[in-house]
Design goal:
- The protein is an alpha+beta fold and 146 residues long.
- The protein has a single domain, classed as Lambda Exonuclease, Chain A.
- The protein contains 3 helices and 5 strands, in the order ααβββαββ.
- A 5-stranded mixed β-sheet has the order 1-2-3-4-5, with helices on both faces.
- The protein is globular and about 45 Å long.
């Protein structure tokens, strides 16, 4: 039995990130890691959308959108960073996005350090009854031209 919800999927994502960081190391811009993650996640058989516009909700109403680096298997948002140090404000921002997007799980991946850093965040306010367009837009292994 899994310890965390969606553990198999998050392990695949972290595995892809580990491979990217092992190959590239640190020091590149975020977009380079994003492109490499696209390749590795496709190789892992994950379904995802890259640079997906996520709806932002307030009081159960959609009030805007923000782009997430990856939206995986229609359930997990993945935010990439390429910073030497991930600060508390980055974790708070990711946590706020989870609530605003009404998503259960987010992975924050930082490629900027000597070692890959990752943090799994869960949304305690997740509302499965809140509908949005997000679940209709995931296609298996999309190719990205970005």
């Amino acid at each position: 039995m899994s310890q965390f919800k969606y553990e198999k999927i998050t392990k695949k994502i972290i595995g892809a990130a580990t491979e990217v960081h092992s190959t590239l190391g640190n020091g590149f811009q975020e977009v380079i890691y994003q492109r490499a993650m696209d390749i590795e996640m496709r190789k892992s058989g994950l379904s995802f959308v890259r640079e997906f516009n996520m709806p932002i909700f307030y009081d159960s109403e959609q009030i805007g959108e923000r782009r997430v680096d990856f939206f995986v298997e229609s359930i997990i948002s993945v935010e990439l960073k390429a910073r030497e140090v991930v600060e508390k404000v980055h974790y708070a921002q990711a946590s706020n996005y989870l609530e605003a997007y009404n998503i259960e799980v987010d992975l924050l991946l930082n490629f900027g350090g000597i070692s890959l850093e990752f943090k799994r965040l869960e949304n305690p306010k997740y509302n499965p009854n809140l509908t949005s367009k997000k679940s209709n837009l995931i296609h298996p292994n999309p190719r990205s031209d970005k």
